[in-house]
Amino acid sequence: xxxxxxxxxxxxxxxxxxxxxxxxxxxxxxxxxxxxxxxxxxxxxxxxxxxxxxxxxxxxxxxxxxxxxxxxxxxxxxxxxxxxxxxxxxxxxxxxxxxxxxxxxxxxxxxxxxxxxxxxxxxxxxxxxxxxxxxxxxxxxxxxxxxxxxxxxxxxxxxxxxxxxxxxxxxxxxxxxxxxxxxxxxxxxxxxxxxxxxxxxxxxxxxxxxxxxxxxxxxxxxxxxxxxxxxxxxxxxxxxxxxxxxxxxxxxxxxxxxxxxxxxxxxxxxxxxxxxxxxxxxxxxxxxxxxxxxxxxxxxxxxxxxxxxxxxxxxxx
Length: 317
Known about the structure:
The chain is 51% helix and 5% strand. By secondary structure, the chain is mainly alpha-helical.
């Protein structure tokens, strides 16, 4: 059991982010800034010497209350729920570091994100936000190439995160002349459907696979230390994919707490904005019921409303 104060682990955590997680300098700076807010709170509560193993649920709750009531000095207003969640995600990452290093502390799952009424709405990214997210990975590393391919695939195909995790390399056969790719998958409810890969996704996947030197059948694998020596599959889990997306949301500085499902929403709304009918979008998404797909009509409804106002608000007679 360590008696080292929790706040003294920041340098070790940032080294871990750089060396083992391969995060960019900018991302490390963001994590450091977000965690310093937590350390400031600990010090203000007389908890500067609190070791990791003494951190408990009450501390987390009180910190969340502090974030909820904190007034932004520049904007003179409380922190948005999304901003509060950035701080909580950073804290959760620190707890994940403790797990990796076998340092006793509170489980990362105990840090629940702040709920927002807007969470009930369908969230999607605008094209400019998508561009920032898709271009966020550092493609000079194998992890960055994997993450670039993963993000491009999510947006190109509209796959559910579980469907993405289940993809195998032999399903994605890319030849030198491949410009467009379609494959059959078994989706939710054992329903077979076809998904389509854009040229951007194909290029990203091909570049990633050409750098792979392993024999794992999974399309997307983890690169944790020692994983290559294990006989077990290195296939990314659903949680790992969710964490990857969240990481690049922070790197890209997006104002929304995007998830893999946000990219699925973005895929659907992009199709609707391009004039694709709802029934076709239903097929792309693999929805059994058209009513499920109708949640995306909020996008076209606003466009229809604007057209109606533009035409019928005119004094023509």
